[in-house]
């Protein structure tokens, strides 16, 4: 499993976007990663970003209605519920229909969502989630971050990068805050304050200079950087 450090070094995530993401997910933002092609790296990026969740958050698989109902009935301990993919296939932790609608209720109980789906754009993601599955617009807004990947080239020479990011503060509709050509639009963010963004950037820089590389090392470095930031 690749880490955030690996993604930055590969050019999949810019340092600028990594700092913003560290600030948002570090404060409990739910997120999804989208791309239409299979093998685009959706699951890899999602897994790497899980390194950024708060220290007190457990990771749990949303592997059916029973697991989801457990989260809805128990706000504590806070957990990040993983839907391996928004899809109708009979695979582990794939969610569709009634299960997906219940999954999108989990943030109302204080939990975090992390998932991916086959969509290249925000409009495609919204159509799958709300149009095909009946998730309400109100619940969609609780998916605070949406990242969309683009793949160039083939095989080992392929390069993957996040080309756009959308955010919602949970109340208003989603807006685009990152474009690969123009960078991060800090002024457009209602989810991450300037101070939080500065702290997120500092956290990423500390991780990069720590020498951490593996996902386990990076997780430890993220937690150490967060703790240092709180005491600074």
Provide structural commentary:
The strands form 2 sheets. This protein has an 8-stranded mixed beta sheet with strand order 2-3-6-1-7-8-9-10, with helices on both faces. A two-stranded parallel sheet has the order 4-5. It has a single domain, classed as P-loop containing nucleotide triphosphate hydrolases (Rossmann fold, 3-Layer(aba) Sandwich), CATH 3.40.50. It contains 9 helices and 10 strands. It is an alpha/beta fold and 232 residues long. 38% of the residues lie in helices and 20% in strands. It is globular and about 45 Å long. Helix 8 (194-209) crosses helix 9. The longest helix is centred in the last third of the chain and has 17 residues, at 215-231. The model has no long low-confidence stretch (mean pLDDT 94).
Jot down its keywords.
about 230 residues; alpha/beta; Rossmann fold; two-stranded parallel ribbon; 10 strands; about 40% helix; about 20% strand
Which SSEs are present, and which pair or pack?
Layout: H1 4-10, H2 15-25, E1 31-34, H3 42-49, E2 58-61, H4 65-73, E3 79-83, E4 85-86, E5 94-95, H5 98-103, E6 112-117, H6 122-132, H7 137-140, E7 145-152, E8 159-167, E9 175-179, E10 183-184, H8 194-209, H9 215-231
Parallel strand pairs: 1-6, 1-7, 2-3, 3-6, 4-5
Antiparallel strand pairs: 7-8, 8-9, 9-10
Summed up:
With 232 residues, the chain is α/β, with parallel strands linked by helices. The protein is built from nine helices and ten strands.
């Amino acid at each position: 499993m690749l880490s955030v450090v690996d993604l930055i070094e590969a050019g999949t995530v810019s340092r600028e976007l990594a700092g913003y993401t560290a600030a948002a997910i570090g404060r409990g933002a739910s997120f999804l990663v989208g791309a239409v092609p299979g093998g685009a790296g959706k699951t890899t990026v999602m897994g790497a970003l899980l390194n950024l969740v708060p220290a007190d958050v457990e990771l749990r698989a949303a592997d059916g209605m029973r697991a989801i109902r457990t989260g809805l009935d128990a706000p504590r301990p806070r957990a990040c519920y993983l839907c391996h993919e928004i899809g109708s296939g009979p695979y582990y932790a794939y969610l569709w229909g009634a299960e997906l609608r219940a999954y999108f209720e989990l943030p109302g109980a204080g939990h975090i969502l992390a998932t991916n789906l086959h969509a290249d754009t925000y409009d495609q993601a919204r159509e799958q989630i709300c149009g095909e599955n009946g998730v309400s617009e109100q619940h969609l807004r609780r998916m605070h971050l949406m990242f969309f990947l683009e793949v160039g080239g083939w095989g080992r020479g392929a390069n993957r990068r996040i080309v756009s990011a959308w955010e919602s503060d949970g109340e208003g509709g989603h807006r685009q805050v990152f474009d690969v050509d123009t960078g991060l639009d800090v002024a457009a963010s209602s989810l991450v304050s300037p101070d939080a963004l500065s702290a997120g950037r500092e956290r990423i820089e500390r991780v990069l200079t720590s020498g951490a590389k593996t996902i386990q090392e990076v997780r430890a470095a993220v937690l150490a950087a967060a703790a240092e930031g709180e005491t600074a």
